[in-house]
Amino acid sequence: MLIEQLINGITLGSIYAIVALGFTLVFGVLGIINMAHGEIFMFGAFIGVVVTSTFKGPLWLAFMAAILVTAAMGYLLERFALRPLRNKQGVSHLAPLISTIGVSILLENLSHHIFGPGNHPFRASFAEISFQIGSITVYLVQIVIFIISVLLMYALSFWLGKTKAGKALRATAENLETASLLGVDVKRTITMTVIIASAMGGIAGILVGMAFNSVTPQMGLSIGLKGLAIIILGGMGNVKGAMAGGLILGLAETFVVVYGNSGYKDAIAFAAIIVILLIRPQGLFGQKISA
Amino acid sequence: MRKQLKKFAQFTALSSLLVLSACGGNQAAGDEDGESSGGAVKADIGVISYISGPGAAYGEAITNGLKLAQEEINGKGEVEINLVIEDSAGKQDQALTAAQKLMNSENVTGIIGPTLSTEMNVVGPEADLNGVPIMGTSTTAEGIPQIGDYVFRNSLPEALAIPASIDKAIEKYDAKKVAILYGNDDVFTKSGFDTMKKAAEEKGLEILTIETFQKGQSDYNAQLTKIKGLKPDLILASALYNEGAVIMDQARKMGIDVPFVGGNGFNSPEVINIAGDAANGLIVATPWYGEKEDDKVKEFVGKYEEEYGKKPDQFAAQAYDALYIMAEALKNAGEADRDALRDALAEIKGFNGILGEFSFDEEGDVVMEPTVLVIEGGAFKEFN
């Protein structure tokens, strides 16, 4: 039973981590907390449901469609909700946060109208594949989720650290004007970042749909808030921190249920985050900001 | 730059419009006169329903049921009802604001709703204070009609439904050990849990563990794995169907094959739609059984399916009957007066609706016989 719970915790944690990676990417470059990320994630899940259940399409098509749609949503988000507020006189630094909150409310209500309220089951035969080891049932989806989250983390670390586009992105994160003076196409870099982060949200959405067989218009909010907590825990803008933070939160939530009272699941998980932050205010992997 | 600004302004205007239209719910225009004229009693009935947010599916079913009943009642010509529908979004404060708006409108004679027991706990006392008869169609928690003289309900309380289904399940499966799972952030599921625990203790069942979850949660694996390790004979789950169906799906995937006993909110054909085969083995007691060999029931199901393209659940059925009860009381009262309506409601006895024979007891609570159902082969069947 312990091993089963460990698998549950890692699955949940990996999902949190993928969502948090999207958050951390946008925050790292733009310094903006993208509150619409959870809703973009939800849209990804819905696209998966529509492709596999309504049109009976194959799973790979669902992934492609979800990535395309969420990437397009990322572009629109950047173009209409973030870019108009950038580098403008008199715009409060909180304005982009508020505009992403607006987008998240818009998307939630929009999905409500398009897809309807309530739970939408995810019918994919892939989600049914499982192995029996003793009394333990392991689903292939659980393994895939873990692998994808690790792959994404490494791919992002590599991309940010070793490639030219990644360097341009980090330069942009450091200082917008300087990067632009040095010949970095800042506009394109920022747009790319938001698009990539959104597409990752879309992937996470489909994975959640498959793992839990539950897709609702409201799923974005709670997972969005958890993603936010994780990037603060792991260190804002840090890729490895997002991964570690996600796994810690997922495992903490699961083991509160195992050894304690499931009523305190969220309370204890978040209390743990507060304690960690008291000891390391910059987050687990964050760097101290020099004064 | 100016062009961009303009575009942005257009976008925000458009998006805020969309949000507004999503939140606003629909509102019927108030009727001018609330007095009787030419034989028919004309009255506005206020409706407070959960139309937007996580539980919007309930509000949709309820308002559908009401509108269908309204059409039929108005067609008969004895009573003319105008529905004034307000959205509570499942929130207490919004439900209260909606109720106050309705109560302040002189034309509103009675109120149907709100959807959740949590909402009724704040709206009920206010309606009672203002002398507006209010009837819940889905408020099944303990103590709702006891709020006051003006508070009624036609929804089968959990206190009647749950012990009936637990009894039958024990009998059939010879159950001795149970695990309980419930949503701890909703008065409805919490009250269902209290009833389950009491019933289980009274029957001498051993309660292995009590696990909780929250509304809108999607991952129940941790709780279910724990339950699986304890090997119960039955799982008592006080959940609304949205969460409940996902719980059953995840439980069956994990290899938990014992029957589930659910409360009132778990009883919906949507469970089968969402969970598929995993829904088999769910036992619920219900005031509403759509397959019943009864002309009224068949007619209602047929009309509802034709109108809305899906089978009615108990929320639709209870709302439908509730408006008929209101109409019956209005007819007996003979005028659109709040006090007269209350007195007429209190006297409803042996009303024959689609839910079966229905009466109010002296407190305004339900007197009726529940049917116990089980899901087998993807359909609700009578459980014997």
From TrEMBL, chain A:
Transmembrane segments: 6-33, 61-82, 94-116, 136-160, 190-212, 267-285
Keywords for the protein's UniProt record, in alphabetical order: Amino-acid transport, Cell inner membrane, Cell membrane, Membrane, Transmembrane, Transmembrane helix, Transport
Membrane topology classification: Multi-pass membrane protein
Subcellular location: Cell membrane
Gene Ontology MF term list: L-isoleucine transmembrane transporter activity; L-leucine transmembrane transporter activity; L-phenylalanine transmembrane transporter activity; L-valine transmembrane transporter activity
UniProt keyword Transmembrane, yes or no: yes
UniProt-listed InterPro entries: ABC_transp_permease, BCAA_transport_permease
Cross-referenced CDD domains: TM_PBP1_LivH_like
GO cellular component: plasma membrane
GO biological process entries: D-alanine transmembrane transport; L-alanine transport; L-isoleucine import across plasma membrane
Major localization class: membrane
Protein family (similarity comment): Belongs to the binding-protein-dependent transport system permease family. LivHM subfamily.
Listed name of the protein: ABC transporter permease
Organism annotation: Cytobacillus oceanisediminis
Source taxonomy: Bacteria, Bacillati, Bacillota, Bacilli, Bacillales
TrEMBL record, chain B:
SUPFAM superfamilies: Periplasmic binding protein-like I (SSF53822)
Keywords: Amino-acid transport, Signal, Transport
Heme among keywords: no
InterPro entries linked: BCAA_transport (IPR051010), Leu-bd (IPR028081), Leu_Ile_Val-bd (IPR000709), Peripla_BP_I (IPR028082)
PROSITE patterns documented for this protein: PROKAR_LIPOPROTEIN
Keyword Signal: yes
Ranges that cross the membrane: none
GO biological process: amino acid transport
Pfam families: Peripla_BP_6
Domain Leucine-binding protein: 45-368
Span of the signal peptide: 1-28
Superkingdom field: Bacteria
PANTHER family hit by this protein: LEUCINE-SPECIFIC-BINDING PROTEIN, PERIPLASMIC BINDING PROTEIN OF ABC TRANSPORTER FOR NATURAL AMINO ACIDS
Family: Belongs to the leucine-binding protein family.
The protein's name: Branched-chain amino acid transport system substrate-binding protein
Organism: Cytobacillus firmus (Bacillus firmus)
